[in-house]
Amino acid sequence: MLSFTPGRAARPFLLLLLGVVLVSATPALAADEPTAEPAKTVKLDGKELFKTQCKTCHGAKAPAGEYTPMSLIQEQWEEHFDGPWLEIHGAVAAPANADKKVSDLIDAATLEAIRKFCIDHAADSEQPMTCG
Amino acid sequence: MKRTALLAPVLVITGLAAGNSPAATREYSHQDGYFEHYEGTKTCLQCHEEEATSFFHSQHYQWQGETPGLVNAGGRRLGKLNTMNDFCTNPLASWIGNAANSDGKVIAQGCSKCHAGLGLKPEPTLSRAQLENIDCLICHASGYRRDLYRDEAGHWDWKPILWQNQPGLDSVSKRISLPERTMCLRCHAGAGGGPNFKRGDLEYELADCSPEFDVHMASAGNNLHCVDCHRGDDHRVRGRGADLAGTDSPDNPLTCESCHDARPHQVAILDRHTDRVNCTVCHIPTFAKKDPTDMVRDWSTPQRHDVANKWSATITMGQDVQPVYAWFNGKSRVTLMGEPVQPGPDGVVTLMRPEGTRKDKAAKIHAFKLHRATVPLLEDRGWLVPLAVDEFFVDGDLHKAVVEGAAAAYGVHDAAYRWVPVQRYMGIFHEVQPAAGALECLDCHREGGRMDWKALGYPGDPLLAAID
After folding, report:
1. What is the mean pLDDT of residues B439-458?
2. What is residue B242's DSSP assignment?
3. Which has the closest alpha carbon to B181: B244, B144, B125, B225?
4. Which of residues 61-120 of A touch B (CB under 8 A)?
5. DSSP assigned state of B449
6. Beta-carbon neighbour count of residue B79 at 10 Å?
7. Taking CB atoms and an 8 Å limit, are B15 and A70 in contact across chains?
8. Which pLDDT score, from 0 to 100, does residue A100 have?
9. Closest CA relative to residue B175, chosen from A129, A73, A89
C-alpha cells in the first residue's frame, strides 16, 4: 500500500487543487442558494472542471506547481482527495474571493467529478492525460 | 507536529481506501524487498543483467533477426529496422522527436515510441549503454507510462511520466509481471498510426473481449494472454505470421497445432480439410470487427485534416473485412530496400508474398489481410524509398519527405523518383471464432463464394467438380 504524504514537492499541487476549488466556487455557491426550479441532474465534465478549477493555480510554471491527472498515480490521487486535499485547500484563500477558502467554494459533486477525472487519467491509468 | 498528527489518521484511512484502485487489486512480484527506489534500467540490471542481455539480442529490441522464413534473404538479418513497409515505410528517418503542429500539439513522436528502449537506436554490438537503454518496465510493469523529453543539449529520451514523482514511480516499477494483454496491445494494436490501423486482427478490444470476438482471449472464456501462446525462452517471442522478415524463435514455431490436434473436429469432412486448409480460413471469417483497419495507404496524395491540424497519406479504411486467401508453406518472399523491385504482371510490387502453391504439399490455404499502398521508387535504381513521415505530418511537404527519406536510407540526395503501387500479404491469426461462428460449407463452395479458386490453382470449385 502506497503512503503518499504531501511533502514540499506536493504542496504546490495542493495549492493548485485549492485553486481549483476556488475557481469552482461560483457555481458551488449558487448551488447552495434556494431555487424555485427543481434541481436538474447535470453530468459534470471532470476534464473541463479540472481545466477551469484546478489549472487556475496549477497550470504550467504556476507558483503552486503544475499538476495534471498524470502527475500522480491512482493511489496517490485517492489518498490525496480522501485526506490532505481538504486540509490543504481549507487553508488557502480562493484566488477570486479572498474571504473564502478554496475548499468552501467547491461543492461535493464538482469535487467528485474532478477526483474521478484525475483517477481515471492518472499516470498509471490506461489513458494518462494532461487535460489539454 | 500538529499537521503530522492530523494527517496520520487520514493517511491510514486513505490507505485502506486505496484498495479500490485497479493496481491495488492485482498481485505483482517485486512488491517488497527487491529494491527501494527505481533509478532507471540500472535498477533492473542489478539482478537481471542476464535477462537484459537476452532481450538485447531479441527481435523486440534489435528490430531485426534471423530470416529462415524468407526464401530470398540470403542469410541476412532483417526486420522493421532495415526493410520497407507499406504503412510508415521505415523508422530510419523518423526515429525519435516530437513533431508538433502549429497549435503546439504533438502529433508524432517517431517510431521509437514502440521500441522497448529509451531512445537510442539498437546497435548490433552489446554495450553498457545499450543494456541501460532497454526499457524493461514498458513490457513488465503494469501502469508504467512514458513520454518523450528533450534535455538541454537537445537530445530526446523516453522517460517515465512519473520521473518527477519518485513515490509514484517506485510504486509502479514494483508492479512486475509477465507482459499483460494491455502492454502488448499498446504497440501491437496501435501500430500504423491509429487503433488497429496496421494488423487488422489486433485490436484494443482484445484486452477484454467476448468469446464471439476472440474465443482464445475472451476474458470470460479461455482468457488467454498474448504470452500464453507467444512466450518463448530468453525473450524470443514465438510466431512470425507470414509477413515478418525476422524470426525470433525459428526452432520453436507457433502454429494452431501447438495446442490443437491436427484433426480436431470429429467430423471427417472437416478434418479432411485441415490437410490443405489452415484453421484461420474457417475460424476467422472477418477481421477488424470493431476498429476499422487501414486497407490502402496512398502516400502520393497527401490529405489535410483541418480539425486535427495535420497531414497524412490518403488512407482507405475497412471494417469487418473478409480476408483474401492464398497458399502459404511457412516461407515468404520479401522485396528489400536497396534492390531493384520486380513488379508483377499487374505492375504491383509485392513487399511480402507467402510462398506455396496447390501442388506444394507443405502449403495450406491461409487467411490474409492484403494491404495496398503507393510509395516512392528511385527512378534510376528501382529502389523503394521510405519517407521521413513525422515532419510530413506537420507540413504536408511530400517532396521533402521523400528526399529526406532517400537521404536517410541510401545517402542519395535530390533523387528523382516516381510512385509505384505495392502490396503486402499479412497473416490473420487473431479474432478467432468458435465453431458456431466459423464459415460453413456454402460460404466457399457455391457460385460466388468467397474463394477465388482459379487464383488458388484450381480449375473451379473442387466440390462442384467432384459432384459433376
Report:
1. 96
2. T
3. B225
4. 70-76, 78-80, 82-84, 87, 119
5. -
6. 20
7. no
8. 84
9. A73
